[in-house]
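Renewal narrative, Specific Aim 1. Our central claim is that a sequence can be written position by position from structural information alone. The example that follows is taken directly from our test logs and has not been curated for this report. It begins with the structure tokens describing the chain, in the order in which they were read.
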């Protein structure tokens, strides 16, 4: 008998029919003798709808109030799923984040989980109940409701699995696993039966939205065995077949296994590039340019500084496209002070990244990637690398 956390995404919870299918699947696992905690997302489109309502009232919604609204989609989901299980004769109970002590910081709309009190959930599991907990939300020290950022139910599920020391966290979604790249964009993408935790972390943080990055961090920090699999298969398929389907995130480096050099390709469409021209090349340049950007709470991604010519240099960096106008405004405000001659921007750029632990032991991966891009006539604007990834910035029309 194992303790297993199931997470179901928006499409999986997209209609009452689908919720009944989720209940059938959950009931199957419970009937097999497992202790089950379920973490559902809001029904598909619901979080967007709620955020849209907020924006009709306030174009830049107050973050605390926005979380109050955005968190409600998940509350509907848990209630409906509990009812679908009760209707099948299963003993089930639903909770919001605050009812089971999911404590977060107060960074509304992107809060981080700090602790989870597992006592109530354990007592229910001991009593044989199926426990259903809202994804995406928590509560801060002052009792304010917070949300964990878009796609945050993945993180709720893995964090709950970590707190309960669950045997496995199963992330049910609308594709049957993690692919070499987004299968909705590239039809030739292949499903991976296993991926290392490090690779999954890079793919998620470089733009593959199949898992929220923080959920992968939790899986790594607490060694939670995590699997991504389909919620759209027959809910009554054999439990053994289901338990081995999808993609397992593994924590071992399989040196004896025939390992692909590149496991996956991630992309981020919505990037923007900013160049500050002709700044004096002296200590503190980077700080004086990026300091005001970070004070405005804007995250910077890739950075390059050119060789100086006649004591002047150019400095280029990227931000998310949402932050582009704001970042340009901030820099216009400090242009005189930093002594820049000009500020240029391009909000039509995208980032493509190749990821694979095999890069550690293989040379020539970067040159192969650059040759391929050159053969297609695609100009590379910026490059950044780590031990297991290469990212390039390109014109968005080539994405
Ligand atoms: P959920 O609502 O279940 O959380 P998401 O839409 O957040 O689902 O994530 C699943 C989607 O992630 C898939 O439909 C797919 O389009 C996308 N995706 C992006 N990159 C990948 C990848 N490498 N492998 C699988 N799916 C990917
Ligand atoms: N419902 C939230 C969102 O749409 C959380 C999630 O689905 O994971 O972002
Ligand atoms: Mg998601």
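The sequence written for that structure reads:
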């Amino acid at each position: 008998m194992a303790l297993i956390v199931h997470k179901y995404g928006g499409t999986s919870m997209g209609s009452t029919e689908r919720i009944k299918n989720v209940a059938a699947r959950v009931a199957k696992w419970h009937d097999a003798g497992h202790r089950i905690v379920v973490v559902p997302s809001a029904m598909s489109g619901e979080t967007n709808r709620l955020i849209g309502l907020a924006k009709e009232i306030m174009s830049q919604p107050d973050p605390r109030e926005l979380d109050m609204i955005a968190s409600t989609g998940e509350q509907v989901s848990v209630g409906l799923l509990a009812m679908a299980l009760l209707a099948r004769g299963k003993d089930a109970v639903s909770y919001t984040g605050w009812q089971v002590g999911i404590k977060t910081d107060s960074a509304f709309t992107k809060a981080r989980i700090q602790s989870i009190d597992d006592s109530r959930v354990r007592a229910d599991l001991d009593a044989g109940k199926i426990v259903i907990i809202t994804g995406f939300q928590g509560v801060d020290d002052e009792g304010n409701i917070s949300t964990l950022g878009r796609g945050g139910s993945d993180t709720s599920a893995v964090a709950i699995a970590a707190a309960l020391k669950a045997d496995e966290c199963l992330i049910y979604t609308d594709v049957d696993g993690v692919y070499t790249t987004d299968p909705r964009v590239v039809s030739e993408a292949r499903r991976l039966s296993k991926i290392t935790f490090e690779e999954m972390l890079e793919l998620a943080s470089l733009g593959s939205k199949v898992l929220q990055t923080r959920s992968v961090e939790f899986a790594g920090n607490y060694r939670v065995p995590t699997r991504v699999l389909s919620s759209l298969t027959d809910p009554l398929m054999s439990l053994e077949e289901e338990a081995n389907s999808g993609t397992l995130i593994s924590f071992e480096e399989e040196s004896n296994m025939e390992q692909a050099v590149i496991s996956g390709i991630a992309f981020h469409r919505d990037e923007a590039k900013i160049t500050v021209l002709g700044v004096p090349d002296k200590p503190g340049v980077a700080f004086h340019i990026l300091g005001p950007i970070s004070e405005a709470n804007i995250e910077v991604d890739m950075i390059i500084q050119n060789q100086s010519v006649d004591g002047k240099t150019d400095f280029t960096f990227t931000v998310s496209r949402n932050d582009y106008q704001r970042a340009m405004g901030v820099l216009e405000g400090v242009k005189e002070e930093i002594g820049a001659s000009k500020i240029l921007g391009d909000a039509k750029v995208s980032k493509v990244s190749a990821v694979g632990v095999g890069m550690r032991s293989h040379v020539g991966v970067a040159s192969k990637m650059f040759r391929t891009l050159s053969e297609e006539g695609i100009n590379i604007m910026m490059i950044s690398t780590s031990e297991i990834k290469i990212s390039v910035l390109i014109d968005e029309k080539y994405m």
